Amino acid sequence: MIDKLKAVSERFDRIEAELSDPAAASDIEKYKRLMRERKNLLPTVEKYREYESVLRSAEEALALSEEEEDREMKDFALSEYHELKRRLPAIEDELRVLLLPRDPDDDKNVVVEIRAGTGGEEAALFAGVLYRMYSMYAAKRGFRVEVVNANETELGGYKEISFIVSGEGAWSRFKFEGGVHRVQRVPETETAGRIHTSAATVATLPEAEDVEIEIDPGDVEIETIKSSGAGGQHINKTESAIRLLHKPTGIVIECQDERSQFKNRDRAMKILRAKLYDMKVREQTEKIAGARRSQVGSGDRSERIRTYNFPQGRVTDHRIGLTLYSLEAFVNGEMDPVIDKLIAADTAEKLKEGI
Question: What's the CATH number for 210-287?
Fold first, then answer.
C-alpha cells in the first residue's frame, strides 16, 4: 500500500509542477485534464500526508520516552506515543478506500430513462412519481435536469420520460438507480381502496463525451416529426421534434421537449452517444474473465431493486436489505440515506474482493 501511496504523491507533485508553469494554460484541454486529475488525487495525498505526520510524531514520542530521564516526561511521551499509534489503523482503513480504483465516469452527467411497466395507468403515474423524486433530489444536490422526451398520459403520468441530469458527480449519485422499481399503494383510479402493485423501469447511462464515441453521420437517419402531448394530440404544428435511427444498432431516439429543431437534435445525439457508450462499456465488461458482479453494481436491469410501500410508509432497497420508514421524505428527494448506503456497500464489496 505504501508504494502505491508514494506513487500517488509523486504524481500529484508532478501535476502541481506542470500547473505552476505559466505556459500550462495555453493548452486548455490539457490544463482542464490536469486540474481534474489533481482534484481526484488530492484527498488521497492529504490523507497520506496525515498518515506520515502521525507516524513521524509517534516515532518521535517513542524516542523521547526512551531518552527522557524525568519520570513524568517519560510517561507523558509514552502516553502520546500510544495515542498516536491508536489513530493509525483508522487512517490506514481510509487510505485503503481512497486507493480503490475510481469509476472513471463518476464526474459525468447522467442520462435517465423511466418507463412505466406492469400496472397500466397506475404504473404511468408511478413513473411520474419517480421523475419528480429524481428532479427534487437533483435540485438538492445542485444538479440541473433537462427533459429530452416525454410521453405523458391524460392523468399526468408518463408512459416514458427521458432526461439528462447535469453536474459534477451526477453519475456517482445516480448510477445505482437502474432496475425495476416496484410500488405498492392504493391507486388514484381505485374506488374500492384496494392496494395494487405496479412497477416502472429505470435505466441510467453516463453521458459520453464527443471524443469517447465517434458516430458516423452516414449511420444516423434523421426524421423530423410533430411534437405531441398527452393522449397523442398535437401541441404545435411545426415539425420541431426529432427521431434518430442509428442503423448499425437499431437504436431509436426521439426528442420533442424543445421547440427548436436544432436543440432537439443536439439532445437526441447526446442520448444516442450515451447509449452507444453504455453498450461499449458492457461489451468490455463481458470480455473480462471473472469480472466482478457487485451486489449493487450495474447488473441486470430487469432485477427488482427497490419497493415503495405507501400504506406502511416504507422504502426497501433489496440489494442491500435496507428498509427505511421515511417514504414521504424519500420520494420528496431525500434519497441520500439510501444512496450513501449503496455506495458504502459497493466500497465494502470492492475491499473484500481486493479490487
Answer: 3.30.160.20
Fold observed for domain 2-98: Methane Monooxygenase Hydroxylase; Chain G, domain 1 (1.20.58)
Enter the C-alpha cell of residue 263.
436543440
Q: How many CB atoms lie within 10 A of CB 94?
A: 16
C-alpha cell at 241: 421534434
Helix (H) or strand (E) holding 253: strand 251-255
Calpha distance 188→195 (Å, rounded): 11
Per-residue confidence band for 229, with pLDDT thresholds at 50, 70 and 90: low
Tell me the torsion sign for CA atoms 281, 282, 287, 290: positive
Tell me how crowded residue 173 is: count the other CB atoms within 10 A of its CB.
22
The pLDDT score that the predictor gives to residue 218 is 85
Instruction: Look at residue 313 and tell me whether its pLDDT is greater than 90.
Output: yes
User: Is pLDDT at 139 greater than 60 in this prediction?
Assistant: yes
Q: What are the domain boundaries of the chain?
A: 2-98, 105-207+309-355, 210-287
**Residue 203 near residue 178 (C-beta atoms within 8 A):** yes
Q: What is the pLDDT of residue 191?
A: 61
Give residue 171's pLDDT. 94
Look up cell 459525468; give the residue. 108
Which option is the CATH number for 105-207+309-355: 3.30.420.40, 3.30.70.1660, 3.40.50.300, 3.90.1170.50? 3.30.70.1660
Quote the CA–CA distance of 110 and 167 in Å, as a whole number: 9
Give the tens place of pLDDT for each residue, 39-80. Answer: 889 989 999 999 999 999 999 999 988 887 788 888 898 999
Nine-digit cell at 279?
453498450
Among 8-22, 119-133, 286-300, 307-321, the range scoring the smallest mean pLDDT is 286-300
Number of H helices, E strands in the chain: 8, 11
Residue 1: partners with Cβ closer than 8 Å, 6 or more residues away:
92, 95, 96, 99
Amino acid at 27: D
